[in-house]
Design goal:
Structural class: alpha+beta
Oligomer: single chain
Shape: globular
Number of helices: 3
Order of helices and strands: EEEEEEEEEEHEEHHE
Distance between the termini: 12 Å
Strand content: 25-35%
Number of strands: 13
Radius of gyration: 16 Å
Largest sheet: 7 strands, antiparallel
């Protein structure tokens, strides 16, 4: 699904075969979008593909450049600036439910107690090697050749597992309560 008519601004949303993972590809021109403070009930794994974007999160500004990856945890109050510092923002976000991420942790046999705990990611990482996987995923979604849904799901899992193996360092926090979502995931 594509939204928007400006050829320099584009946003596309997809769901994978797994109903707990959604994909969002976006392009915003200079000064294209500033969003209000909000939260989500799922993890948002944001990849900066080109240009710059900034997020105010956890009381500090995180500026993303190509190759940077930032995880916005469920319940993190944040807001974004796209088309930041006279550069357009091109990015890709994986929206992953808490349940789906915990299931990936279980299947990877990571030494983390996911029951009754929150899994948090607190720092952005720079991992340019993920750009090739994201570009391959976007090509599958745009060309829609036979079996593209299966290939897309495989690439999403490859991205998440690669990040968990190589660069994302989870922090574990005892779960206190379910945080209400302020905006729906879509």
């Amino acid at each position: 699904m594509l939204i928007g008519t400006n050829p320099h601004e584009r946003t596309a949303l997809w769901s994978t075969l797994d109903p707990e993972i959604y994909l969002h590809h976006f392009r915003y021109s200079v000064g294209g979008l500033d969003c209000l403070p909000h939260t989500h009930g799922e993890y948002n794994v944001v990849f900066c593909l080109d240009g710059r974007m900034a997020y105010d999160i956890r009381n500090r500004e995180q500026v993303l450049e190509p190759g940077d990856v930032l995880v916005i945890n469920p319940g993190d109050v944040h807001f974004g600036h796209y088309g930041y510092e006279a550069l357009e923002s091109v990015g890709f976000t994986l929206h992953v439910t808490v349940r789906a991420l915990k299931e990936i942790f279980r299947k990877m046999h990571l030494p983390v107690d996911v029951e009754g705990n929150d899994i948090l990611f607190l720092e952005k990482v720079n991992e340019p090697s993920t750009l090739a996987l994201v570009q391959q995923l976007l090509k599958e979604l745009e060309t829609r050749q036979n079996g593209y849904e299966i290939v897309a799901q495989s690439l999403v899992l490859q991205l998440l597992i690669y990040l968990l193996r190589r660069c994302l360092r989870p922090s574990i926090k005892r779960s206190l309560a379910v945080r209400p979502r302020q905006l729906p995931s879509w």
